[in-house]
Amino acid sequence: MAIPKTGVQADQLLLDERLNALQRVLAPYPWAYDLSMVGLLLLLAWLANWVTKRVLLRTLRKLLTRLPWWGKNGGDTSEGGKPLRLSMIPRLANVVPALVIQAGLGWIPDLPAKLQEVLRASCQAWIVLTVVLAISSALNVINVLYERRADARNRPIKGFLQIIKIVLFVLAGLSVVATLSGVTFTHIVTGLGAVMAVLILVFQDTLLSLVASVQISSDGRVRVGDWIEMPSQNADGTVTDIALHTITVQNWDMTISAIPTKKLISESFKNWRGMYASGGRRIKRALHLDQHSVRFLSDEEVERLRQFPLLNAYVEDKHSEFQAWKAGFTEKGIAPTVERRITNLSAFRAYVDQYLKHHPRIKPDMLQFVRELQPDANGLPMEIWCFASETGIIGYESIQADVIDHLLAVLPSFDLHVFQVSSDAMLMREAEGKQLDRKHILAAITG
Questions:
Q1: Computed from CA positions of residues 253, 258, 261, 264, in that sequence, does the dihedral angle turn out positive or negative?
Q2: Which residues of the chain, if any, have pLDDT below 50?
Q3: Distances (CA, A) of 260 to 220, 244, 346, 377
Q4: Are 370 and 356 spatial neighbours (Cβ–Cβ below 8 Å)?
Q5: What is the helix (H) or strand (E) element at residue 437, kind and residue range?
């Protein structure tokens, strides 16, 4: 009793009959059948690749455009400007021609067994490499989609994805070598134990960068968008990218610095993120005052200071303090040799302190004070320490200039002078003037 054949078996028998008929027709012509089969196989491989790309790519793109997280323009560009390309789909479509060629090698009867084995192994290696490249492209898409999240800047995953790519390509390379050499994959892996020391030496930078990347991502010491300063690497600007091996910084002069990731673990750098997070940027400037202009204020000048709203409380406190100090001597029946009085410098220091506290663009809840530093050849430095309410460079510089300009302008009201090293231009002009006067005198005497 004959066993009924399935539809696939019937199609296979029909195909074999037609191939046998074609072989009989081309029997008088040597290699004609083999060349025909090679051409047919290549044609089928190209056709399968073309159909797969057109059908699979278009269908998947239509499905993705319906997803809310894909984007408005079909995934071509995201709102942040980063392209989102479907390069993994064309790569996966390249697997189909290799499968067609691998399955159709039996159609060529005169093909040597050794060559057939090499071609099959090459097809398998091509499939493995193509799949790994498609996975790499998929990881790129995952990174682009992740960077659209609001918290992606705080914890980037690009370094981890690059690690996965390295592992995949290493495994794919070992698989290709094993396939082409005709040995098992486990034998290749076990043989690597003998050369691990060499591999560690060769990839030591990658391993160090891997450790640094994991540590940076875990503690968040550097994030995309941070302003960092690293003088040893000539970097002073905004972090634009964090990868496995390098961290890209766009400096304020628009140049680009690439810092090895491991350097951020082994060397020191400054991150200005805390300044932006606090909402205040420090102003630390000093006015160099002429020490010869420091003096006591007269009673009339003290009374005039009482008219300053910012200094009224200071004058009253000092007056009470001096009266208590003087009373202590009076109780003991001793007359103080030197009377304590307010100086123009102390009054100015009190004015600066109150001015900063009442300035609308100075942070009142952050540290601020005025202090006198060690006098030197450039005068008496009076340092101002406060925090501006704007952290941007334009707003910050505007606030700083506004404070310094006002203090310089108000100095004459306290009869204080800024110490400034003069050039010799004035002395030369005076000397020239004296020489002219002498010439006029000699001319008048000699007639």
A1: negative
A2: 1-3, 72-81, 83
A3: 17, 9, 52, 44
A4: yes
A5: helix 425-446
